[in-house]
Amino acid sequence: CHVFIVCAPSGPRYIMASTIPLIALNVTVRKKLGLYLNPKNAVAADWTAVAEAMDFSYLEIKNYESTKNPTTMVLVDWQARATDATVGKLLSILTKVERNDIVEDLHSLILEDVRRYCERQKKAADPPLQVPEVDSCVPRTPERNGITLEDDPEGTPELFDAFICYCQSDFHFVHEMIRELEQTDYKLKLCVFDRDVLPGSCVWTITSELIEKRCKRMVVVISDEYLDSDACDFQTKFALSLCPGARSKRLIPVVYKSMTKPFPSILRFLTVCDYTRPCTQAWFWIRLAKALSLP
């Protein structure tokens, strides 16, 4: 059983690795795992042994052999389909195949990723400290109630069909989504952060509240700029953590322009709505609207 000790202002915290989803591991750790496991090794277990321990079939493993980085692909697909894809389970598998050298060498890097993941989760869950108002005769509005334009602080919170994850450079396409999905017979209700969210509250708190409790789906607008956005990265990973294996079809990736960078591997297992293909453009909005209209 692997336990991490994470330093916090209130003192050390003991965290069970089995409670930390694999999504917490960043690109650096995954690349280093590949450096250890990708080479065929006659002495130590390689990536194929790890894949077998993750219950991948013989044919699946043979298919991974043709990929540039089989270790990364195995981790991505395992994370997508296994409910027990956690950091603790990965460490247990490495121990099982007698690769304790990897566990020891990468321990500090993995610990740092776990610490950062826990910090992000805490920011998303906890409201910021508030300074008491002086001489205020207006009752304070609970932060998670009055956060959107149509919210009734004393009634039912505003609900949406989909949260739109986008970066600022793609905002013109978000405008097109609004026209095609809200202002047509589809009559869908989209949550567009810059339009619908009131200013003045913690971004992480609002975002997690909207994605988890207010929106049935999340549309991820993929572009080169999206890959450099910390906010989009947080939103995507948070939504994925709510639906491992995409069982609830919560995330819908959308590509609307050609990209020079690789498609994010973390979303590779999801069906993409592609606007860049002329032969399927006529069906793009119909498919997207149908997916967002599902219960």
UniProtKB/TrEMBL annotation:
Pfam families: Death (PF00531), TIR (PF01582). The keyword Cytoplasm applies. PROSITE patterns: DEATH_DOMAIN (PS50017), TIR (PS50104). One of its GO terms (biological process) is Toll signaling pathway. Residues 32-110 form the Death domain. This is Myeloid differentiation primary response protein MyD88. Residues 158-292 form the TIR domain. It comes from Seriola lalandi dorsalis. Adapter protein involved in the Toll-like receptor and IL-1 receptor signaling pathway in the innate immune response. Keywords: Cytoplasm, Immunity, Inflammatory response, Innate immunity. It is found in: Cytoplasm. The keyword RNA-binding does not apply. Its main location: cytoplasm. It comes from the Eukaryota.
